[in-house]
Amino acid sequence: MKYVVALLLLLVAFSFSKTWAQMDTVRLREVNIIDNNQKIHPGFKQVEIDSFALKSKHFNSLADALQNLSTVYIKNYGPGTIATLSFRGTGANHTEIQWNGININSPMLGLHDLNLIPINSFSNVEINYGASSLNNTSGGIGGSVNLISKPNFNNKLSLEYSDIVGSFQNYNSQKSIKLRNNRIQSHSYFIRNTAQNNFPFQNEFVPGKPIQYQENANFKQTSFVQDVYVKVNSKNVISLKWWFTESDRQIPATMLSKHGNEREIDKSNRFLAEWNSQQGRTQIIFRSAYLFEEIDWQSPATNLFEISRADVFRNQFRINIPIKSKIQLNSGIDYDFENASTVNYPANVRREKLNLFTSLEHQILKGLNYRLSLRQEFLNNKNLAFLPSFGIDFSPEKFKFFSLKGNISKNYKIPSLNDLYWLPGGNINLKPENGITQELGIELRAKNKFSNLTFSLTYFNLLMNDWIQWSPGRFNYFEANNVKKVKSSGIESQLSGAIQFWKIKLISNNTLLLNESITKAVAEENDQSLGKILIYTPDYKISSFSRLEFQKYYLTFHQLWIGKRFVNRDNSLFMPAYQLSTVGVGRSFEINNISLQTQLICRNIFNTVYQEIAYRPMPGRIFELMINLKFTK
Amino acid sequence: MKKTILATAIAVLFFACKKDKETGPQPTVTPTPISSFANGVFIVNEGGFNAGNANISFYNNSTQAITNNVFSSVNNNLPLGDIAQSMQKFGDKIFIVVNNSSKIEVVNLFDFKSVATISGMGSPRFIGFINSSKAYVTDLFNNKIHIINPSTYTKTGEIAINGWTEDISIVADTAYVTNWDEKKLYLINTQTDAVISTLDIAEGAAGMVKDKNNHLWIACSGNTWGTPIVYGKIFKFNPYTRSFEKEIDGASVQQNPSKICLDKNNENIYYLSGNVYKMSVNASSLPTQSFVATSSFSFYGLGVNPLNDEVFIGDAVDFSQNGTVSVFNANGTGKGIFSVGVSPNGFMFN
């Protein structure tokens, strides 16, 4: 352990002394300076959501975009209610949602509700599968999703206004202003989203099977995003980012119960300051973030009114140094401080985390690269875990269309503050959940004058220990314990690309997930979940997204097939498989500096009746009309 | 090529969607239906909160066969609802209180076919039948007792009472109702619907049973959620003298009694406190030895067969998967175990 720290310090000292000497000789293109820390590392799977698909506003929520463009599975309780993410059969709390590299999961819940994230203020969304998330932070045992905003604005001024009007009084309006001069870029966004969500559905679970309207499902959300980038000089850029979101939503009941006017108000206020410095070929990044969240839960029917608050500081230091021509060293230190208070904890709770990591990337031969990384985690000054990970990438020179990659890693996830401190039942002696992940995949690429296609196929296997589960305890309440072992294995595949023929351009993105996630060990002998599949993890998920462009017109189509999901741990009940289709048409107009895009989307065009979660109704056919007006100078 | 695939896919989808499909939760193994409900035990499976999986099981005393999901399989696959709290016979009908669906389902005792649904109650818990035109229903959140007519299946009135009313027994023209958080026993005149007396009991009223002499045994389960832990008590109440004949404290043995039952000859009471305990009605302190012990602390339902003193224990396992019921002979030897629905919380002997 001491050796790691010593090595790190030595390297830092070494790099600084070297690079000051090199200052005169190396100048880099501006674009590289703001290189997001998470480059694709050999052996690790990182997929970027098609920016184009994001920007064209086919999806007005991050949950919808991820569900339709990637192999991650979104568990959605209904429009406007909670939506969580599951990677490779793991739970919502095994995924990290990051904002420019900073973990924004709630320290109390250990997860993030995707319906609270407005999608259009981010330039890129990166998905890190499994151990790929370890290249920045730990805790994303299943993976992480990184929402990135970049200073990629190349004009002087842009004003953008877009408005979506949809069924069930869904209004989504966004306004943004981008400014740029030689030194400074400013991106500002204001997003307001309201929806009644009073969609009709047939309640086939009560006598008479009446048509009912969803009640108490109102959703109101306001977001402000302000990003400022200051180019101090050709080597140094400072970014200041602010993101505020307030969501006020009513919580609807199931088809078998009545709502009691439940309501939840979520507020988050996030600040990030980053200094990115390119010293020769060495890159140094400092990031410091303050995250504030408040959850206000109101349930008049049960007389429960609770406010929970958390303050989090996250600080990161990163240094990427090339050593010789074939070796790259990435090292970093993270320091996090979390503070939370709620009536359900005995007192204000605090937690400190320190992570040190270093990794080596080495090109052994042409076309063969590996990455070895070591991470040491400390929690509240106690040595918590040592996480090694190794990845290898084989991309032969002779066969440029083919590459093979794989990795094996140890990862872990610390218990959430609710798991530790909740009264009653929280267990302060909980160990972190930990696991070993392995994956092996191939990628094939074909490119010619007319088309550009990529195909990937990955096999993954995770073994997780000490999975935390809340179970009945001594005194009539549930207690958190490290009880389970879970094995999840499966295949992910993606086929995407663009084809141009005649005057028509076709962009397509198709994904497949096959997964089996099984409980391998349980605590009690009468527990029938042993050997059974985890609840709400579908056995397959297939998505297909296509966009056809002809001159100024375009047509989009996306299709989703979700396999059956078991509802209880002994697999005695399951939700049937379903499919959803969405069609859209649009046209763009351009006059001088103004561009106008109009689009009509019909979601669930075949009016499929389905439930994601048992007895929670989902809307049928929905129409959305979008207008986007942009002025650029 | 892609276009053809796309077109075919659309065609396939179009046809696929024309089918009329089941959309709710489906059983992995379809239960076998039965038609006779005589000589057996009904098990109330509470289900999970907002999971919609409450259901009723039936155990045949002579064949020892168990049939699950009885309500749905007899009534066109309609789900029973969310959180089945209790079940009671009245005449030739059975009344099932479905707490989180805010209703009472009424079915025939003979064939379990649905007769009516009584709605208009917020979070009903237990019923006390007074006569063929009046019954009281206790309530968890709405600070009242509902008055219903069990023949016309309608709600006819309310009695305002602050707090969580739970158990109810009727003796002559008085209703005896416990209140979990207010720690009270109310005496209500069933003709005038007025509260005539309020007596103090302990916190956590979680079971009441009437013996052959019309005396009421009340289990109070204390409060395990706070610090320090409040242990429970067992009371014996005489409705004729309107006084408590026994108050047995659980602190000395660290117990929180609930789900109290009597055996056939009213010689012993049984209750749950983690384990299952059996105590003589003449005892003045709670037993330290258990009747049936558990290491998983998931015992959730308790019943004693009035014909033969067999003890039925519902085990909720993890309150998410299907639970089990174990049957024990009166001498404590095990007779069998079978799988039921989620969170079996009570029994009704037919």
End-to-end Cα distance of chain B, whole Å, is 67 Å
Rg of Cα set of chain A: 25 Å
Most extensive interface between two protein chains, with residue counts: A-B, 59 and 55 residues
Task: Write the H/E string of chain B, N to C.
Answer: HEEEEHEEEEEEEEEEEEEEEEEEEEEEEE
Query: Largest sheet of chain B at a glance?
Result: 4 strands, antiparallel
**Tally of helical runs of chain B:** 2
Beta percentage of chain A is over 45%
Structural class determined from secondary elements of chain B:
mainly beta
Tell me the span between the first and last alpha carbons of chain A. Answer: 55 Å
Oligomer: heterodimer
Q: Please give the number of β-strands of chain B.
A: 28
Uncertain spans of chain B: 14-19
Rg calc of chain B? 22 Å
Short description:
Chain A has helices at 2-22, 30-33, 51-55, 62-69, 417-421, and strands at residues 46-48, 73-76, 83-86, 95-99, 102-103, 124-129, 143-148, 157-166, 170-180, 184-195, 200-202, 211-213, 219-233, 236-250, 263-279, 282-299, 304-323, 327-341, 349-365, 368-379, 382-394, 402-413, 433-447, 451-472, 478-501, 504-521, 540-550, 553-562, 565-566, 573-575, 578-591, 594-603, 622-632. With 633 residues, chain A is mainly β.
